[in-house]
Automatic annotation (TrEMBL), chain B:
Subcellular location: Membrane
UniProt protein name: Protein HflK
NCBIfam families: hflK (TIGR01933)
Pfam families: Band_7
Length: 296, 328
């Protein structure tokens, strides 16, 4: 019985020892085996691996996946002395596990170092550019991608040399203006909108006036045209009437003169006219000497 | 009265069967048999660690001692038991949502997005509030799990989209964003974000990008609205003028038409009067041709009858030596 227990205990101890010698390496992870605290070898192949039991050999795991560093936004000064709030981020991963282990140990330290690098690169890159290189509607003015590319490259160099970190990309996730500038910008935006609104209104007036004037002109033209046509017709009518009269009266001019003269008398002789009639005129002679029964 | 009798008769049989069952149990749980049963249960349980159900919307990654051996589709998945093989299931069919410019939790709970999150700077130095919703799926489970890491991969989608948007909006004038630019921004955001994610090997595919809203910030929105009002007013003014033109031209045409008509009727009247007068003249002339002297005399006397009554008349007697004598 005692023997059995001893055997079992020995078997358990052997199993524990065996387990402390085995380790798994996951994908996107690497293991650094430390021999009495000194890095001995790097294991990158995922799967089951063996080492000597602790404390002879110990294992440190390093995550090789991409990490995102998200420092808080900060104010930067551009070349033309404009303040901008820049919120950047960086995607990074461990490139040289050994150097990473020796220099920064863990992710928090690494990110603190990287944040310093990114901030200083942002500051120096933005300080040599005018604001229009970041914000402009003029095509070809904005070189944001180029600036970020430059920052990425310089940060990559520093981080690789110093900490065994590969900076994959530094991006600009937000741009804004500091609070005091924002108020000025809002005021300017308002002024701009007011100007645009005024412009719309005066354009409306202008165009409406043009349409009205055009309509008035057209109206005058139509009326003048009609007036001219009417005058033509009246003229034609008068000419036609004159022709009709002339044709008819030419038949017997004396008779026309006779009739027309009588008609004229009727018009111009009124109660103010005094007519002197000789008593022996043909009209009145019968008053004095009626030749009854003698008419021819 | 019947109870005690039943009590007394019943107990004998159950007591013996209960004793038999207890004895069998004692035999089973004693010695090597118990150890064997225990070992069987443990082995069964261990074996079952290698069986799992991969649901309809999932895909599973199978790892043997940490190394990826295969991808498994939906269904029952058999693997070697733990710790030799392990499996991780990922909901690859699920369409995930990433809000940009706001947070889903905030949108659900009520508080509006913070100005820092919703504001973007446009190319003409304006500030605009824009929210956008990204929908994406995991296109490559292995990359999603191991290139970036599940939590940070989702975060990366947001960062890449924000970087793309910031750069794009910084080149656009505010008016374009508020009017025609939305579709372009959506498409361009999708393209840029996808390109960034691909270059980082995130294993994510953007499905849709939808702009939730683009509005001017609250403290200047009145001025922006006034521009819209002014635009409408402009259209209204031009419309009214058009209405005036459309009304006044037919009126002018009607007036012109009427003037011409009046002239036409003048022509009718004038010519007809001439014809009438001429026809009267011709009638008289025809009469006069038959008896000239009589006709002329008659016409003359009729005219005198009409003329003389209204004028003052002085009759001079020639035979009396030209002395005037008033008739009246």
């Amino acid at each position: 019985m005692r023997r059995t227990v001893a055997l079992l205990a020995a078997a358990a101890a052997a199993l524990l020892l065996l387990l402390s010698c085995a380790y798994e390496i996951q994908p996107a992870e690497c293991g650094i085996v430390l021999f009495f605290g000194e890095p001995a070898r790097i294991v990158r192949e995922p799967g089951l691996h063996w080492k000597l039991p602790p404390p002879i050999e110990t294992l440190v795991r390093i995550d090789l996946r991409l990490h995102i560093l998200d420092p808080s936004e900060a104010e930067y000064l551009t070349l033309d002395k404009k303040n901008v709030l820049v919120d950047a981020f960086a995607a990074w991963q461990v490139e040289d596990p050994l150097r990473y282990l020796v220099t920064v140990v863990d992710r928090r330290t690494a990110e603190a170092q990287l944040e310093d690098i990114v901030r200083s690169e942002l500051g120096s890159a933005l300080g040599t550019r005018e604001l229009t290189a970041l914000i402009s509607t003029v095509p070809g003015d904005v070189h944001m991608d180029q600036i970020m590319q430059g920052i990425t490259e310089r940060a990559r160099e520093k981080a690789a040399d110093g900490y065994g970190i590969l900076v994959r990309t530094v991006g600009l996730k937000r741009l804004n203006f500091p609070e005091e500038n924002r108020q000025a910008i809002f005021r300017r935006m308002e002024a701009e909108r007011e100007r645009i609104a005024r412009q719309y209104r005066s354009e409306g007036e202008e165009q409406a006036e043009m349409v009205r004037a055009q309509a008035d002109l057209e109206q005058a033209r139509i009326l003048a045209e009609a007036e001219r046509r009417a005058q033509e017709i009246r003229g034609e009518a008068d000419a036609e009437a004159a022709r009709i009269y002339a044709e008819a009266y030419a038949e017997d001019q004396d008779f026309y003169e006779f009739l027309r003269t009588l008609a004229a008398y009727e018009k111009f002789i009124d109660q103010d006219a005094t007519i002197v009639l000789p008593s022996d005129s043909r009209l009145l002679r019968l008053l004095r000497q009626p030749h009854l029964g003698e008419t021819p | 009265m019947s109870g005690p009798r039943a009590d007394g008769a019943a107990p004998a049989a159950p007591r013996s069967s209960r004793a038999r069952r207890a004895a069998a149990l004692r035999r089973l749980l004693s010695g090597p048999r118990l150890a064997g049963l225990f070992a069987l249960l443990v082995a069964l349980h261990w074996g079952l660690t290698g069986v799992r159900v991969v649901r309809e919307d999932e895909q599973a990654v199978v790892l043997r001692f940490g190394a990826i051996t295969r991808l498994a589709p939906a269904g029952i998945l058999f693997t070697l038991p733990w710790p030799i093989e392990r499996s991780l299931a990922l909901r690859t069919a699920e369409v995930r949502t990433m809000p940009i410019g706001y947070r889903i939790a905030d949108a659900a709970r009520g508080p509006g997005p913070s100005t820092r999150e919703i504001e973007w700077v446009t190319g003409d130095n304006n500030i605009i509030d824009l929210t956008l919703t990204l929908k994406y799926v995991i296109s490559d489970p292995v990359a999603y799990l191991y290139a970036v890491g599940p939590v940070e991969a989702d975060f990366l989608v947001r960062r890449c989209a924000e970087a793309g948007l910031t750069e794009m909006i910084a080149c656009l004038p505010v008016d374009e964003l508020l009017t025609a630019g939305k579709g372009r921004v959506q498409e361009e955001t999708r393209r840029r974000t996808q390109a960034d994610l691909d270059s980082l090997g995130a294993g994510i595919r953007i499905v849709t990008v939808n702009i939730g809203g683009v509005v001017p910030p609250a403290n200047v929105i009145a001025a922006f609205n006034d521009v819209s009002t002014a635009k409408i007013e402009k259209a209204r003014m031009i419309n009214e003028a058009d209405g005036y033109a459309k009304d006044s031209l037919p009126r002018a045409r009607a007036m012109g038409h009427r003037a011409v008509q009046e002239a036409e009727s003048y022509r009718e009247a004038t010519v007809n009067r001439a014809r009438g007068e001429v026809s009267g003249f011709n009638d008289l002339l025809a009469e006069a041709r038959r008896a000239r002297a009589v006709t002329e005399m008659r016409i003359y006397l009729e005219a005198m009858e009409r003329i003389l009554p209204r004028a003052r008349k002085v009759i001079v007697d020639e035979s009396a030596g030209g002395q005037l004598r008033l008739l009246e």
